[in-house]
Amino acid sequence: MNKNHKLSTLVVVLFFIIASAGMAFALAGQTASVQAQGEVQKTSDQAKVEAQDQKAKLEKEIQAAQTRAELDRQKMEAIRVEFEIVVKTYVLKYISASEFMRSAKFYVIDSSGTETTLTVKIYKKNIADFEALLKKLDVEKKNIQFQVYTIVASKEAPLERFKNNFVTETKDIADKDLKRVLDEMKGLWNFKFYWVDSPSFLVVKDGAAGSLFKLVSNPYDFDMNVLHVQLRGDEPGKRIISVGQIKLNQSINMVRSTLIDTSDVTFKEKGYLVVGVSGFNAGWSGSALILVISAEIK
């Protein structure tokens, strides 16, 4: 009886061991299956991320290529426009076409027209600079007034018949600016007597090629040439008047001679300048002729 009972107990124990082993095997199989599915899912997600990265990179490269292509297109268009040739016509108000083209010839390919109209063949890239120059030069010319003094100076006393026309030193000269200029000459010439003739006036246009006029002078017959007058600078009070040549001439018995001839003279605006000093036959020794000019922009 006891043997049978022990045997039965052993059989039950074995059954439970076998059952437990089967369950453990089944559970192990299920765990392995879940792990495998996780690995597959992880690989799939990683592949999706990589695919998205590749797509974004490709889109970025395509966009960069499109941008470069657009920049190249714009650059080529700019070059085409820059070297495009156009024909334009301008109406000139104050400057002649020939005079203006002396300054503007480097901007144009070809030009034609009259003195008041100008037709140019020009690169499109040069139009802005060409028109800026035209705006600067095609303006109403300023008037420049020259005030001219011819002064007979002497180191010795003049003849008795001329004494009433002379002043001693410069103290009796009424024009303060003229007096100042003559006083500055004392270190060079020891003149003691001055005959200041009546001033003469000449008005010329900026850019004038040449002017000839007769001076107000008694008893001497003077005339003067003023050539190539040009105004420099734009700021009032600081402008400069340049003159290519100034010639003072005297006529005696129909014979004309040049007393003073000077080139490349510059005047400060409203300034006085001793243009020249010349030997002069006033009828006694030690005499000279002084030419003083002031220039003013009107």
What's the structural blueprint in terms of helices and strands?
Blueprint: H1 2-82, E1 85-91, H2 97-104, E2 108-113, E3 117-123, H3 127-137, E4 143-154, E5 167-168, H4 176-183, E6 193-196, E7 200-205, E8 210-214, E9 222-232, E10 240-252, E11 255-268, E12 271-279, E13 287-297
Task: Give an overview in words.
It contains four helices and 13 strands. With 298 residues, it is α+β, with helices and mostly antiparallel strands. A hairpin with a 7-residue loop joins strand 9 and strand 10. The mean pLDDT is 83.
Offer a few descriptive terms.
about 300 residues, alpha+beta, six-stranded antiparallel beta sheet, four-stranded antiparallel beta sheet, 4 helices, 13 strands, about 35% helix
Q: Determine the number of helices (DSSP H or I, runs of at least 4 residues).
A: 4
Category by helix and strand content: alpha+beta
The general outline is elongated
Helix and strand pattern? HEHEEHEEHEEEEEEEE
Rounded radius of gyration (Å)? 52 Å
The quaternary organization reads as single chain
Quote the beta fraction: 35-45%
Tell me how many strands there are.
13
Biggest beta sheet summary: 6 strands, antiparallel
Between the first and last Cα atoms, what is the distance in angstroms? 153 Å
Percentage of residues assigned to helices:
25-40%
Unreliable residue runs = none
Summarize it.
The protein has helices at about 1-80, 95-105, 125-135, 175-185, and strands spanning about 85-90, 110-115, 115-125, 145-155, 165-170, 195, 200-205, 210-215, 220-230, 240-250, 255-270, 270-280, 285-295.
